[in-house]
Amino acid sequence: MASTRRNIWELGSDWADPILWYARGVKAMKRRALNDRTSWRFYAAIHGIFPPLWQQYGYLSSTDTPPSQADRNTYWNQCQHGSWYFLPWHRGYLIAFEAVIRDAVVALGGPNDWALPYWNYFKQDALPPAFASANWPDGTGDNPLFVEQRYGPNGDGNVFVPLSEVNMNALGEPDFEGVSSGGSPGFGGVATGFAHGGRVHGAIETQPHDWVHGLVGGGLSPQEPGLMSDPDTAGLDPIFWLHHANIDRLWEVWRQNPATHVDPSKANWINGPASTGGHAFILPMPGGQSLTYTPGQMSNLATLGYNYDDLSAPPSPLVARLERLGIGVTEATAIARRTAMAKTVELLGANTESIRLSGAEARTSIALDPAARNRLSTNLNEAARTSAVPDRVFLNLENVRGISDATAFNVYINVPEGENPANHPDHLAGSVALFGVRKASAADDKHAGDGLTYVLDISGIIDRLHLSRAIEAGQIHVLLVPRNPVADEAQISIGRISVFRQSN
């Protein structure tokens, strides 16, 4: 019988039974030694481990007996980011973790159908109360769901997800697989091999995944990120699992449109990186067993033994865009179905120098190539006149480097000089949280040190500039506004900001 994952805010009370049993299961895992494959810290290290930060926060000591080198090679540092394996790898990670917690719950006398709740921050932005206090029904000062290193969006310990800064626009992406050449990175990411920290994050990974990690974890300084802010500590925070259950749910929401929203059919996605000589996806399970799986095996909830209580989808942002261009809703819906697999990408323009993000904001300008701009304008005019598929336009923040994963900023286009960007929400291109930037900036055996690239869909803004003829000025102006001032020691830089047109 399938179990059902439910919204934690709709379970009836702050400490409803599924939450209390989760806390008890977490406590049981935390009691186990580091080298126990089903211990809390072993499972966190599967996602990633950065020993200096673990030591700093008291999660690793000289008295710990480490796992065998074979276990570390097999299980640790597996998480897939910046990759089309992001969603299926994390789905398997959730399934295995849920099995370990359920096994602990049953051993403690709890229900054998326990299921992991999810946190739908789009409905309720506050941190669930069970995670916000050191006290819980079973004790005082030792709540297993509470961690000190959860600083929130303002770094003051007040943890919430501002609803104005998260969105589900990724659900409007027609393709799972994107491109790494400047156009859409797709709903699920770009094609890679085993990628423990790839360069280009897919749409669902950029927003809301990365943004929620950065907002919830926050940080006190570049050297003191919240656990959720860094991939190498995120799995230590019990809220991590409820956040990822929501991301997993959104994958299933996206799949509710089977006409175009389908998972990749390519063999190297279905069979995973092991099929081409890469690392297999393998996770510990209760009773000394292991779960070895492929992305193809993670593609259908009906075969995986669980479901979600809510798979409702918001209105399509693509249909809304087409209607803004003067295309009726019936035609807009049909066009949205025809946009799948649009892959022709052309550079419209780029700025001429790298940017150092420090303090309150940074600015740059991009000159658009006249011929490419004219081709874009022609397409947008034809879209309104003939119901052709309109081009999409993407802003790329390339080679973003630094040492502060807790850094988060908003990106605006053409905010009038001297005005408060917060008063111009229609100029907001998107929000970027640098989850994974420290690791991606380090040149080592797994990373070239090139940093991360973020791709923001600015088609709606370009539409407005086109309709008002402002695009004819030949330039767009980019404003980066951090949520909190960025310290010089964070060393945040952006190699280039570019604009690409993706045609059909």
This entry's quaternary arrangement is single chain
Q: Given the structure, what is the number of helices? A: 13
Gap between N and C termini: 44 Å
Mean pLDDT: 92
The CATH class assignment of the largest domain is Mainly Alpha
The computed structural class is alpha+beta
- The total of beta strands comes to 17
In CATH, what is the homologous superfamily of the largest domain? Di-copper center containing domain from catechol oxidase
Low-pLDDT residue intervals, each spanning 5 or more residues = none
Structure, briefly:
With 504 residues, this protein is an alpha+beta fold. It has helices spanning 17-31, 40-47, 51-56, 69-75, 86-107, 203-217, 239-254, 267-270, 317-324, 329-338, 370-386, 437-441, 459-467, and strands spanning 3-5, 177-178, 189-190, 219-221, 224-225, 281-284, 290-293, 306-308, 344-350, 355-357, 362-367, 392-401, 408-413, 428-433, 452-457, 475-482, 492-503. α9 (317-324) packs across α10.
Q: How does this model look, in words?
A:
It is built from 13 helices and 17 strands. The protein is α+β, with helices and mostly antiparallel strands. The chain has two domains: 3-308, Orthogonal Bundle (di-copper center containing domain from catechol oxidase); 317-503, Sandwich (Jelly Rolls). The strands form six sheets. Strands 9, 10, 12, 15 and 17 form a five-stranded antiparallel beta sheet that branches. It has a four-stranded antiparallel beta sheet with strand order 11-16-13-14. The two termini are 44 Å apart.
